Amino acid sequence: MDNHDTPDEIGARGDLTRLVFALAGPGVAYFIASMLLSHSLARGIKSGQFGLIFRVGYPGLLIIYTLAMLAAILSYGPRRASFRWEKDEECRSTHRLLSIGLGIAGGLACCAIAVPVMLTQNEGIILAINPVVSIHGLLQLFLLVIAIPFTSEIVFRGMVFRRLAEHMTLSAAVIASTALFMMWWPVLGWYAAASLGLVSAGLFRKTGTLTASITASAVLSLGSTVLILLFGYRQ
Question: In total, how many domains does the chain have?
């Protein structure tokens, strides 16, 4: 039986294949780094150096994650389509200020979901937050609020979500891209990753740009850090 594929269908499959290869190498490197950090933390518990290893190792993991995202973006090939959803009847490009406002609201909503859960695990979370006045703290703040939101949203919403939406229903693409995001994102727990993945996909689809989803990610990271420092140390 002959299979007559249109050029658009062939191109879409090619994009999906290129996406898989773009994520494969950086993904392996990142998960190896995660396993090494977990192993070091396990040894740190026995040696009494858990806090020191966590404070140094966690920023290192964030750097590796950011580099993995950059590698995936460069391997896939930066393109304008990764930053904007085509305009159609369901999605019109929203004004940038409105997109930022929606992103702030989405990030705060994710904070409301994530922070109460994180405060029940405040010992490990607080150990991971370096004082902002330190070099490690400034580096970690830059990674959490700028580098990771930009690179993560380009990869998981601009690349993964968009490509999956071409091969499955929109709802399935949201769930699949969020599940993949939960496996990668190193900032907070799976509950925060799940809420951010769902919110960011919805924001990207509604506004037509990554501005809102990047803002939501940055607000979640910054807002969670501030709230944990405010309430965590009081417990």
Answer: 1
